[in-house]
Design a protein that fits this description.
With about 450 residues, this protein is α/β, with parallel strands linked by helices. The chain has a domain at about 70-350: Alpha-Beta Barrel (TIM Barrel). The chain has helices at about 10-15, 25-35, 40-50, 55-70, 110-120, 140-155, 175-180, 195-200, 210-215, 215-225, 240-260, 285-300, 315-325, 360-370, 380, 385-395, 400-415, 420-435, 440-455; strands spanning about 75-85, 125-130, 165, 185-190, 230, 265, 305-310, 325-330, 370-375. An eight-stranded parallel beta barrel has the order 1-2-3-4-5-6-7-8, surrounded by six helices. Strand 5, helix 11 (about 240-260) and strand 6 form a beta-alpha-beta unit. It is globular and about 60 Å long. The N and C termini lie far apart (about 45 Å). The structure holds iron/sulfur cluster (2 copies).
């Protein structure tokens, strides 16, 4: 028996047997804990998952929205994925990049990479999620590290990519050490499904088909000191209740073993891509269930970022932001070279996007919804990662940096990428938002920093 995480189906099924056995008093106790931002354990979560009472669900949605506002102060972090390679030796049945799909595979050349990053910078992005299929021969870690180095070294007039989160396949201790040394932001790895039999049926071949190796990847990563890890489940592969409980048990395991759990949780759900039909997945979740999933996670882990991709409609994205999502991608392309059209090759998407609005349209939309679009990357550059981040979050101090940093990055965005009318709109928006900062000292510092930006300084953050 090692110390790595493992999943017991029997245990999770026994938790799920509570269905319809939980009474109102128990649910109210759990909700009271959630309201105090205390987070929930897997027993609490099982209790919430067991209720079909609409009155309970309305309370859960309301608390989820309140938690998000209390912790993050209405900011929504905006980022973009950057696909550097679509070569993959795995056959994941739900993915357009799977090895059996026949199309011309490619990796960005360094020149193409620079064109992609240039295009992303011109959209205003500061935070990327670097994505690559798994192919040790055509896309080795050396290549990935070269890309990271190159991106961090690129500087534009005022812009630069300031944080690179990395989403690559499960790997060895040695490789995680090298990723850590490359100063990546969050290491993201989706478990896809925690249910072993389902996992094996949708991961037909390739290294990713090894369930245990994949499941224990965060144990290896965190042993090397990579303490910002981001999990994800592809909802729709198996019963969502099973997945939520397994995900939360995984989080509890990391907290117990390393003192800190997931920094982020991504919530994709099955969408069509080349060779993928969502109708083939009987566990696909509808909109209302998806909203419940997000809300339960927000109650369970109030300080963990919840990330939503452009796989959802604008309306659904709005609903899910209100239910607890705190980071969204914007202007995304899920093919290699998609931002700059750097090569005249036809490319294949990993999955189809639905919210295809330009980054600027998403920024305006968020502001119209009373939300602060944020390009902030401050925490990891201030050394606020892992348990140091959680300490700040759990004491409620994160709110004193999240909203201010969101406002500062929005101002920077308006100055560098907007016209006069947009600048005026942003100034009015910021002035209204400043009133929401209850700490007068922080408010005065934000006002002073806004002036620094006006005077030409950049990258000013708390
Ligand atoms: Fe490859 Fe990842 Fe797609 Fe699986 S999900 S086929 S590992 S790119
Ligand atoms: Fe994220 Fe930290 Fe910036 Fe808040 S202050 S948006 S937690 S990087």
């Amino acid at each position: 028996m090692d110390n790595n995480f493992s999943v017991s189906n029997e245990y999770i099924y026994s938790l799920l047997e509570q269905e319809n056995k939980t009474d109102d008093t128990q649910i109210e106790e759990v909700l009271a804990r959630a309201e105090r931002l205390a987070g929930l354990n897997h027993h609490d979560i099982a209790a919430l998952l067991s209720t079909n009472n609409d009155k309970h669900w309305q309370r859960i949605f309301q608390i989820a929205g309140d938690i998000k506002r209390k912790v993050y102060g209405d900011r929504v972090v905006v980022f973009a994925p950057l696909y550097i390679s679509d070569s993959c030796v795995n056959n994941c049945t739900y993915c357009g990049f799977r090895a059996d799909n026949k199309f011309m595979r490619r990796q960005l050349t360094m020149d193409e990479l620079r064109q992609e990053v240039r295009a992303l910078e011109q959209m205003g992005h500061k935070r990327l999620a670097l994505e690559a299929g798994e192919d040790p021969e055509n896309c080795p870690l050396d290549y990935i590290l070269d890309c990271i180095r190159e991106i961090y070294e690129m500087k534009f007039n005022n812009g630069a990519i300031r944080r690179i989160n990395v989403n690559i396949g499960a790997t060895s201790l040695e490789d995680y050490k090298r990723l850590k040394a490359a100063e990546i932001g969050t290491y993201i790895l989706f478990q896809e499904t925690y249910h072993k039999e389902t996992y094996e049926s949708v991961h037909i071949s390739g290294p990713k088909s090894d369930y245990t190796y994949h499941l224990t990847a965060f144990d290896r990563a965190m042993q090397t000191g990579l303490d910002d890890v981001g999990a994800g489940v592809l909802f729709g592969l198996y019963d969502y209740k099973f997945e939520i409980l397994a995900l939360m048990l995984h989080n509890e395991h990391l907290e117990q073993r390393f003192g800190v759990g997931f920094h982020t949780i991504s919530v994709p759900r099955i969408r069509e891509a080349v060779g993928v039909k969502s109708t083939e997945f009987p566990y696909a979740v509808n909109d209302e269930t998806f909203r419940k999933i997000v809300a339960i996670l927000r109650l369970a882990v109030p300080y963990t970022g919840i990330i939503l991709s452009t796989r959802e409609t604008p309306q659904m994205r709005k609903t899910l932001i209100n239910a607890g999502v705190s980071q969204i991608s914007a202007g995304s392309r899920t093919d290699v070279g998609g931002y700059s059209k750097s090569a005249n090759l036809s490319t294949t998407e990993q999955f189809s996007t639905i919210d295809n609005r330009a980054t600027n349209d998403i920024i305006c939309w968020l502001m119209n919804e009373g939300l602060v679009p944020s390009f902030c990357t401050a925490c990891y550059r201030k050394g606020r990662t892992g348990d140091r981040f959680m300490e700040l979050a759990k004491t409620g101090k994160i709110r004193n940096v999240c909203l201010p940093n969101g406002l500062l990055t929005l101002k920077e965005y308006a100055l560098d990428y907007g016209n006069e009318a947009f600048g005026a709109q942003v100034d009015e928006f910021i002035s209204n938002m400043l009133n929401k900062l209850d700490n007068e000292q922080v408010r005065q510092r934000v006002i002073a920093n806004l002036q620094l930006l006006e005077n030409g300084e950049r990258d000013v953050f708390f």
